[in-house]
Amino acid sequence: MITIRPSEARGHANHGWLDSHHTFSFAGYYDPDFMGFRALRVINEDRVAPHEGFGTHPHRDMEIITYPLSGAIGHRDSTGGEGLLRAGEVQRMTAGTGVLHSEMNGADEQLHFLQIWIIPDRKGLTPGYEQKAFPESERQGCWRVVASPDARDGSLTVHQDVVLHATLLGTGEQATYTLAPGRHAWLQLARGKATLNGVELKAGDGVAVADESQLVLSATEPVEALLFDLA
Q1: For the residues 107-117, what does the mean pLDDT come to?
Q2: Predicted confidence band at 81 (pLDDT cuts at 50, 70, 90)?
Q3: Distance CA 209, CA 185 (A)
Q4: Distance in angstroms (rounded) separating the CA atoms of residues 138 and 125
Q5: How far apart are the C-alpha atoms of 101 and 130, rounded to whole Å?
Q6: CA–CA dist 203, 151 (Å, integer)
Q7: I need a labelling partner for 62 at 20 to 30 A (CA). Which of 102, 122, 135, 148 fits?
Q8: In sequence order, what DSSP letters do the residues of 114-174 get, joined into one string?
Q9: What one-character-per-residue DSSP string does 2-25 give?
Q10: What domain range includes position 109?
Q11: pTM across the whole model
């Protein structure tokens, strides 16, 4: 079964410096039908104005994955993690027992990124930070693992039974994924237009998947997409 969460149905908040779309309930946006999907709690698509950002703020007991689409994010946290995160790189922060962090756009161009929250498999983890590059060549035309519970294929480690994949597809290209029995999937189309098992999708759409053994994503224009394989 494939259920679309249309881009235009997402929550939306425009704060001037921040334009944010919420796939699931977040902050002042509440929809009891969209509180998350399995262990996936938040997918926010954020656009941050030049020289603006999120000042120091706390998190606890959450796996936070940041996936830039364009621009660069300056990250600093209370574990000592600090750096610049660019498109083509992915970051995982384990909030665990508590962490303070900031995310800033220090550039002269708009920052566009996805922020993802995953509920961890247990509370009270030691806070931590990890960042890795996944070049376009590794994501082009295939599903590249970027986060997993066992750091498979050089991916980031996430403390939950979730495997996150990313792909880039040119017009006419396909990426096929086999979903094991009893597993669920969420697909987030970050850019472009495509079909998933024949169902038309546009940028910003999300798709909940259950009881499907094979997923075929076909790009009708250049695409960037994320696929979550969840228990």
Answers
A1: 98
A2: confident
A3: 5
A4: 31
A5: 14
A6: 28
A7: 135
A8: EEEEE--SSSSPPPEEEEEE--HHHHBTS-EEEEETT-GGGPEE-SSSEEEEEEEE-TT-E
A9: EEEE-GGGSEEEE-SSEEEEESS-
A10: 2-230
A11: 0.97
**pLDDT, average across residues 178-183:** 98
Query: What is the bridge-based pairing of β-strands 144-148 and 18-22?
Result: unpaired
What letter represents residue 17's amino acid? W
Sole residue written with tokens 């303070």: 100
Q: In angstroms, rounded to a whole number, what is the distance separating the alpha carbons of residues 176 and 69?
A: 22
pLDDT tens-digit map of 19-62:
999 999 999 999 999 999 999 999 999 999 999 999 999 999 99
Residue 152 has which token pair?
A: 């498979």
Residue with tokens 């546009």: 202
**Nearest partner of 193 among 166, 214, 218, 175, judged by Cα:** 218
User: How many other CB atoms are found less than 10 A from the CB of residue 30?
Assistant: 12
Tell me, what CATH number does 40's domain have?
2.60.120.10
On whether the CB atoms of residues 74 and 28 are closer than 8 A, the answer is no
Asked if the model's pLDDT at residue 80 lies above 90, the reply is no
